Amino acid sequence: METKSNTVLDDLDFSILSCLQKDGRMSFTVMADNLKVSIGTIRTRVNKLIEEGTVNIIGRINPDKVGFHSYAHIAIFIRPATLIEKVAQKICKMREVSFLAGTSGDYDLEVDVMCRNNEHLVNFVNGISKIEGVHQTKTTLYFKVYKYAQPDLNLLK
């Protein structure tokens, strides 16, 4: 499989990525032992994956445990369609946004947000509605998140 930089990822790269998905703090020594390669090989490969933007090592926070109690999915309809990119760039900068994508179908943008509470969410949606080009929004509240995960790399095999 090729990445944007046309770098071909091999089985070892995918094995390293799988290790990092399980534990982003896994030591190179443990990874090398698990994958039966040298520590130097792991260090070189991980650094290459980071430099190329294939992986970004971060701490994944449980939103509910730190005070985000209102999650929502917002479908955004934009008119005229020529403003989609401009609206997307404005929404991208909003701190509550955890996911933003352009879509095909009934609406133009799909946004997932994390807010402190429902009042915060209402204020956020009202703010989006005031952006030039936003014709309509449709908000779906998430009552309970059952799964919040990274992609399963085994699906690429």
Descriptive notes:
- This protein is an alpha+beta fold and 157 residues long.
- Helix content is 37%, strand content 20%.
- The chain is built from six helices and four strands; from the N terminus they run ααααβαββαβ.
- It has helices at residues 11-22, 28-35, 39-51, 63-66, 84-92, 118-129, and strands at residues 70-78, 97-102, 109-115, 134-142.
- The chain has a four-stranded antiparallel β-sheet with strand order 2-3-1-4.
- A hairpin with a 6-residue loop joins strand 2 and strand 3 (109-115).
- The longest helix is centred in the N-terminal third of the chain and has 13 residues, at 39-51.
Instruction: Give the CATH class of the largest domain.
Output: Alpha Beta
Q: Give the radius of gyration.
A: 20 Å
H-E order: HHHHEHEEHE
Find the CATH topology of the largest domain.
Alpha-Beta Plaits
Largest β-sheet summary = 4 strands, antiparallel
Strand percentage: 15-25%
User: What's the total helix number?
Assistant: 6
* Name of the CATH architecture of the largest domain: 2-Layer Sandwich
Helical content stands at: 25-40%
Overall 3D geometry? elongated
Q: How far apart are the first and last residues' alpha carbons, in Å? A: 9 Å
Tally the beta strands. Answer: 4
In the predicted model, the low-confidence regions spanning at least 5 consecutive residues are none
Strand order of the largest sheet: 2-3-1-4
Question: How many domains make up the 3D coordinates?
Answer: 2
Output the CATH homologous superfamily of the largest domain. Answer: Lrp/AsnC effector binding domain/regulation of amino acid metabolism (RAM) domain
Mean pLDDT: 93
Structural class by SSE content? alpha+beta
